[in-house]
Amino acid sequence: MARLTTALTDSFDFLIVGGGIAGLRAAVALAPAGRVLILTKADATESNTGYAQGGIAAAIGRDDSAALHGADTMRAGDGLCDEAAVRVLVEEGPRYVQELMEWGVRFDRNADRTPALGLEAAHSVRRVLHAGDATGREIGRAMWKHVVTLQAVCTVNHALVSDLIVEEGAVGGVRYFDHAGGRHEVRGRAVLLATGGAGQVFTDTTNPAVATGDGVALAYHAGARVADLEFVQFHPTALNRTGAPRFLMSEALRGEGARLVNASGEPFMARYHRDGDLAPRDVVARAIVLEARATPGPVFLTLAHLDPGRVRARFPTIAEMCGQLGLDLAKDPIPVGPAAHYLMGGIDTDVWGRSSVTGLFAAGETACTGVHGANRLASNSLLEGLVFGARAADAMLLAPQAAALKPDRREVGVAAADRRSETEGSSASFHRPPASHLTRQGIRELMWRDVGLFRTRERLQRAIAELDSAYAFEALAMDAALASDADAWRHFNLLTVARLIARAALGREESRGGHFREDYPARDDGRWKFHAIDRRDAH
């Protein structure tokens, strides 16, 4: 593989934005058919894939099946999973996981050399393959090792893609800034967005700094539909210690027997859900906040009742991180709390990664096939990137200029809800002030405060008023000289995604999965069992 460090002067057959599991799997499939360019925002290995601790779920166990995996996925999705997408995920997943093993991924093994399978929340059987507690990093290592052997694949690292080139209604390339701030343009027959998640929209997140939702913003500004952006998964157990990073305390810890306890050392999850500590993530996240308010005091994760040697052997990365803070994972109570972790919504695609704009494809966390519904099942994220990255590549090969036109599958709900809110609320809280600037940190604090785990109309309207005002200001700036400034694009994309999430959350007047409205606390299938779409021309 040639790594490009100079300006690109020619075109490629296929462009991939993002170097995580979805982008890499697509590159492998595309390489035999033409020249492939991968644009990564940071170093080649820096992506959400590398931060995935728990593992990758696949129905390979003797007591498991695709049907059972599918049923668990549907149940976790809280009534909003796309059944066709779920079938694709669970039926095709095992063969792609087998492929990873053939490429040298070192999953943990039992004594008989079969893969060791872990249990995580909302799974009915053990089905999670893992490589210690650094599964994503190991998968990324093996995939990059495979990709570098492909002569047709080139990469540009530290490339910030600012916008898509749209001509006559079709995407035919991208513009990007290189590591020195130089502006470039590159063309391709088809573009795949595989940019990962958007956790950095919130102050508290388990995501790396690169997870700013760029793919959603790029697609939206190009006129593509985005869907289900109200559904943000807040992981319940991130390290919650003042001055320390919000380090992820994997779901697998509770799968292996860790317990959540309150400030008095009492287990409490059984009061909130019949599955106790292994309840769905959205339930556990809200329960932690409610318990901390009621106790009052912090909530802890404890493994002190488990064998300390096994704990340290099974979770070496987490144990090391805790050790750096003076905590012993095997003995000490570890303070935890929710943090933004995963975006169930994204660019509206079909099960082949085709977006609503010709020539534009998306896969992985930045896409929304509907496979996760309102709440992702633990360890389905790596599997999603693997399966749908491969399928997007197949579609790009067969019909690179195809667009996914699905007017009957999803309803457009956001714009109508916005109009209703504006007519209902002569409320001062929704009065849009004159256009003004909102800093990056200001966006993140606003989103955590008003668009976090617990949402209300009043708080959402207040957030949207500020975000709309800032968006108007920044849009004017982007039309002027600042369009050539990489930092301006970073800020504009983050603001765009924050605004879209807030608008979607205001539009859905029910509680479902990761979206919880204190003013509409019940799930309402009669009115809201649909996938809400937003798009630029709806505003």
Task: Set out the fold topology.
Blueprint: E1 2-3, E2 12-17, H1 21-30, E3 36-39, E4 56-57, H2 66-76, H3 83-102, E5 117-118, E6 128-129, H4 135-147, E7 153-156, E8 160-167, E9 170-177, E10 183-193, H5 214-221, E11 226-227, E12 232-239, H6 251-255, E13 259-261, H7 281-294, E14 299-302, H8 308-314, H9 316-324, E15 334-343, E16 346-348, E17 360-362, E18 367-368, H10 381-398, H11 414-424, H12 440-450, H13 457-479, H14 486-507, H15 525-528, E19 533-534
Parallel strand pairs: 1-7, 2-3, 2-10, 3-7, 10-17, 16-18
Antiparallel strand pairs: 4-6, 5-6, 8-9, 9-10, 11-16, 11-19, 12-15, 13-14, 14-15
Helix pairs in contact: 1-4, 1-10, 2-3, 3-10, 5-14, 11-14, 12-13, 12-14, 13-14
Descriptive report:
With 539 residues, this protein is of the alpha/beta class. Among the domains are: 238-338, Flavocytochrome C3, Chain A, domain 1 (Alpha-Beta Complex); 414-538, Methane Monooxygenase Hydroxylase, Chain G, domain 1 (Up-down Bundle). The chain has 15 helices and 19 strands. It has helices at residues 21-30, 66-76, 83-102, 135-147, 214-221, 251-255, 281-294, 308-314, 316-324, 381-398, 414-424, 440-450, 457-479, 486-507, 525-528, and strands at 2-3, 12-17, 36-39, 56-57, 117-118, 128-129, 153-156, 160-167, 170-177, 183-193, 226-227, 232-239, 259-261, 299-302, 334-343, 346-348, 360-362, 367-368, 533-534. The strands form four sheets. Strands 1, 2, 3, 7, 8, 9, 10 and 17 form an eight-stranded mixed β-sheet that branches. The protein has a four-stranded mixed β-sheet with strand order 18-16-11-19, with helices on one face. The longest helix is centred in the C-terminal third of the chain and has 23 residues, at 457-479. The chain is globular, with a radius of gyration of 22 Å.
